[in-house]
Write a structure and sequence with these properties.
About 60% of the residues lie in helices and about 5% in strands. The chain is mainly α. The chain has a domain of about 40 residues. The protein is elongated.
Amino acid sequence: MKLPTVLAWFITFNFINITWVFFRAKEWDDALKVLHGMFFGTIVLPVPLANKLGFLSSYGVEFGNWLSGVNADRELFLWMIAAFVTTLFFKNSMQFRNSFKPNFFYMIATTLFFLSIFILYRKSEFIYFNF
């Protein structure tokens, strides 16, 4: 039985977020504090949504400057939307791999790329040695 795609995305996304907390935390207690904040912390929504979602206030939802908690501005939110759109509407590396058809051009381009990298790493004398 195969999971629906959106549910599989949701599970994978949350698994990665939770494990990343433990990877980045300096101590176990720090990781637990972050996880508590993620799952049991206060939910803050943008002020313009207060008119439509004001009934959520009785459940502990607050309306205010929701980006202040991450020390960010609106530009961060726009970058996140752009990343989400890019992820959904453009090909990923596996799709590029499946549609890749090797030809002479790719062989020459790859060879030139690797030669240029090897030439960059040649050992050379100190730059002022020749002066």
